[in-house]
Design brief:
InterPro entries: Sig_transdc_resp-reg_C-effctor. It comes from Agromyces ramosus. Helices cover 50% and strands 13% of the residues. By secondary structure, the chain is an alpha+beta fold.
Length: 207
């Protein structure tokens, strides 16, 4: 199981952004979560999913603005599930708590932690690779994001050029500068690594 805990950066000096993040993540990921997106302690947001691709997508979406420290915890979640993430327990929640604390001091404001395991794959194998992707995306400009979002939604490059009133060559140049293709190639590999880590760390106890 995967638990994501996001803590707002500098919340005492900034407006409270938790409500907006809860609404945004609920709209995009609701059908792929085990429990509704939850606002926990103060300015924290918590999510629970059993899908590695969803966990990675949430991490990447939430770290994009630089306004959140994001911890990804991998482990078990006790069954039966309660009606809210803040009421749930398990090693994935403990790992997520440790991860978000570490994320506050980490480059990219991301950290990964997992329940203790004996395996050929470890957090040290996966965390740096996810962080590299987070840092790559941090360098992407607004024009780069504009093109990436259109293409990721299925828009052809010629159609994107027409929509943005730029040349097809400009679209291609923006995608290259945004390093869109390396990100798309890295995502499936990261999902496989997270899935393997989860298979070793998750041994869900049942009542």
């Amino acid at each position: 199981m995967f638990v994501i805990t996001a803590d707002q950066v500098g919340s005492r000096r900034d407006t409270d952004r938790t409500g907006a993040l809860v609404a945004e993540l609920s709209e995009r990921f609701r059908s792929r979560l085990l429990l509704p997106v939850d606002q926990t302690a103060g300015d924290e947001v918590q999510l629970v999913t059993d899908a590695a691709d969803t966990a990675l997508a949430i991490v990447l979406d939430t770290t994009r603005t630089g306004r959140w420290s994001v911890g990804l915890g991998v482990g078990d979640v006790r069954r039966p599930l309660p009606d809210a993430a803040r009421k749930a327990t398990g090693t994935a929640f403990i790992a997520a708590r440790e991860a978000v604390g570490a994320a506050k001091r980490a480059e990219g404001r991301f950290a990964l932690r997992a329940a203790p395991i004996t395996s050929s794959i470890t957090v040290a194998d996966v965390e740096p690779l996810v962080r590299l992707l987070v840092l790559l995306r941090e360098r992407r400009t607004d024009p780069g994001w504009e093109v990436v979002e259109l293409v990721r939604d299925g828009t052809q490059q010629k159609e994107a050029a027409a929509a943005l009133d730029i040349s097809a060559a400009a679209v291609s140049a923006r995608l290259k500068a945004a390093m869109w293709r390396p990100e798309e190639e890295a995502r499936p590999a990261l999902v496989r690594l997270l899935r393997e880590l989860d298979s070793e760390a998750s041994h869900t106890p049942r009542e």
